[in-house]
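tool_log.txt
---
The assistant was asked to compare two proteins side by side. It first ran the structure predictor on the initial sequence, then on the second. Raw inputs and outputs are pasted verbatim so the downstream comparison step can read them without reformatting.
(1)
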Amino acid sequence: MAGGTRGASLAKVVGTGRSCPLSSEVNVPPATDPIAELSAPLARAVARRTEGAIEAATAIPGLNFYRRETPTESCACVVEPCVALVVQGAKRMSLGHDHYHYDPSRFLVTSLDLPATMQVLSASPERPYLGLALRLDLRVMSELLLHARAGLARDDVATERGMVVGQTTPALFDAFTRLLALLDEPASIPVLAPMIQREIYWRVLTSEQGARLRQIVSVGSQGHRVAHAIEWLKTHYAEPLRVEALAERSQMSLSTFHHHFRQLTAMSPIQFQKWLRLTAARHSMLAEDLDAATAAYRVGYESASQFSREYARLFGAPPRRDVETLRQQAGPPPAVMRRPSTSPAPSQP
């Protein structure tokens, strides 16, 4: 979820099995602060595995660590469904005109692939920003919800944003602490990690903000249908888009589809497709050294000049200058969308 990284997201960083010394860069506050006391073991674990990097994948699938030693400018990103914890420092995620601040006392949940902007607010070399994100498996969460539906209050909430902040709890900290401890027991990861991940999913589903997530993973709900539409867009963003056809795939009227799509993503379907195209083109120019025109045509633009105008409007600089700046800073950012599919689109999203 962090910004650019120099290929670190593809690396697998496995625990060494050694004891975890108290790093001088993890400023552990007094034990009288319960949140700080609970987050301190996580901060030490993340600090140890991100030394000299801004992002590190782990041996646990879907778990990534992030680090920044200075506050950052706001930068565009595509956030996949995940639960994110800041274990030291503070961060802000923005979706449309809505802003979500989180720190060790608050976690962020994203229930859809959402175009957003992120900014690290509090960080220094002595006390770096340290965070982690666990990708959500929405199929597993749907299964949990199906088995436990009778024990949950009925959700009568209207469709809202697909991003929300909730209060961290001792139970959530405990589950993440046990998950990260497995990095020092690589042989136990295949057996124990899935069970702890299911526990984390459950803690989030039953949290004060769980209704937001349940509206996405509940099969047949409006949010669930929009989520499938977004999955289709991720693999077909280079193709011409007929919103009427996408609404029909989602088994919704055009007006209803527009309403729920915008409520969840803060964008219209056309704006969402444009964001996916521009983000994919940016990644291609960085990772494959493509020129702007080639990248534009690859993602579905017919006019290179229109591409350049919309690119500059989104990223704040023309393609060539933006790419040069990113290379000087940190290298290509991770992309979460897949390449466009060449096979026929399925009848249902």
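(2)
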Amino acid sequence: MDDGNQLDAAAADPGTPAPADPPAAAAPPLVTETSAAPGVPASPETGSGPAKSGRNLPVAAGVGVLLGGIVVLTLFTVKATFLIFMGAAAVVALWELARVLGSRGIHAPFLPVAAGGTAMWVCEYWWSDRAVLASLVLTVVVILAWRLPGGTDGYLRDVMAGVFVLAYVPLLAVFMVAMLAPADGSRRVLIFVILTICSDIGGYFAGSLLGRHPMARAISPSKTWEGLAGSVLVCLVAGAVLLPVLLHAHVWQGILTGAGAVAAAVLGDLAESAIKRDLQVKDMGSVLPGHGGVLDRIDSLLVTAPVIWLLMAVFVSVHH
């Protein structure tokens, strides 16, 4: 008997119970990010433990090697070309973030932020810190003016989004430029990049092999305490080796720099995961196979940059 006949029969006979309503469809689960450090694949049978990162490891490794080669090539040939490489990555990251915000009705002005960020970097590399501060403040003023023709509805929301995007990408990245500017800047930036990558690699493999205890399940289910331990171990060892070899620093200074790097890198990773969960997206983009978007790849670098710049500025004098 089909559903229509069942309902007719139930209506005809008051003693016949009506068929039960079909169960409601389950709500789709909240998407998770593909960032993997410090992470571990989940156990799909039991559902316990951290969720899978979803990373295509061979493809991700190939893309990582390619990007690393570009970094080394630009750093140790014509140093200023690294700024072009950085600038291209930052512009794409800005576009990704502005696009995702726009999909949620938040309109951060892309052009003023990109232009202001470029001015900040140029001032840092070729001029002075005061010029950087002036560029930052003027960019905020332009953002205030840029949004006025759009009316008052959502004005504060969009202006604050613009200021956040300006601070999150160009302002944090200006510390990479500050590391690059001195005579030994190529070696400083190389150490900074390697330490941040070590956090990712150490966390990924330690979490994959040993991860059992989630570190921040509500923000990033793939992160585990075991993965964090792997990140810490690899970064401390890398710092203890790299700073004495490349910048003639003491081992203890390298260890402290490695500790600062892993703390900032994990924070940067978690912060971007929180942003993506708030905006309900899995990745910021799909430009880099195996990694997601450019912002998904540089999130840790952005937060680590000011920390490493400060520690190396305190510990190491410039070597010509």
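---
observation on (2): The CA atoms of residues 238 and 313 lie 18 Å apart. Residues 251-279 form the longest helix (29 residues).
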